[in-house]
Amino acid sequence: MKSLLITGANRGLGLGMVKYILKQNTSNKIIATCRNVSEELKTLAVENKNLFIVNLDLTKMSSIDEISPQITKIVGDQGLNVLINNAGISTKFTKLALVKAEQLLDNLTINTVAPIILTKTLLPTLKQASDINKEKPMGVQRAAVINMSSILGSIEQNDKGGFYPYRCSKAALNAATKSMSIDLKKENILVVSMHPGWVKTDMGGKNAPLDVDTSISGIFNTITKLGENDTGKFLQYDGTELPW
User: Which of 223, 231, 127 is nearest to 179 (CA)?
Assistant: First the structure.
């Protein structure tokens, strides 16, 4: 991966991904997008000249439309190898009697609509990377979109109910992933949905069994091995295939 873009990179899994890649190979161009820049992310950018922070408010479609020229300027004629649609919100603990329309709409906007529109916006630079690396097989070394989903988006494994805003938004993201994988296969752009596990973050909570480092190392170990036969799959951080 010569370049990758990670949304929601100011904290949690997104920030952990930035730190992981910086430790692995400092020659990668890492684009970290977020609405509010954390002090830790600012410090990392000062210390690493290959880390670029780009402001992106995923609640505003105009903000997504405006990002393309900035990304093109950073990656140049090499294009963007990997887009990780990581940013998300969660209104998980909502029973049917208590669920509100604004909760559903907020989760769908950030978790489903934004990744679709951002992928559409950055498609030219993803295609550019795929074309330039045409001697390489389909995968992250060529061009890929990784949509960070959740096992709570699995319809088959839903045996507890509830969680309406989050479940619905992630199930919809999984549907989008499948369509993207079909639409972009001719461009040799790999697309998968990835469940990071239940991780100790602000969203996952302190009772989660996985730490950030274990989840992230698993995610990158998994995605670096993916090929043409994997596009369109729903995978756990450790590579286990999950049911839709």
Answer: 231
Coil/strand/helix, residue 179 = helix
CB within 8 A of 151, min separation 6: which ones? 157, 195, 236, 242
Ramachandran quadrant class, 242 (left: phi over 0; alpha: psi -120 to 50; beta: rest): beta
DSSP class of residue 111 equals I
The three-state secondary structure class of 200 is coil
Give CA–CA dist 235/132, Å, rounded. 27
Contacts of 148 (CB under 8 A, 6+ apart): 13, 84, 85, 86, 88, 193, 194, 196
20-34 exposure pattern, b = at least 16 Cβ within 10 A, e = fewer: bbbeeeeebbbbbbb
Could you report the per-residue pLDDT of 181-211, keeping only the tens digit for each?
999 999 999 999 999 987 656 555 566 667 7
Q: What is the pLDDT of residues 51-78, one digit of tens each?
A: 999 999 999 999 999 999 999 999 999 9
C-alpha 240/C-alpha 235 separation (Å) is 6
pTM, entire model: 0.94
79-127 tens-digit pLDDT? 999 999 999 998 866 889 999 999 999 999 999 999 999 999 999 999 9
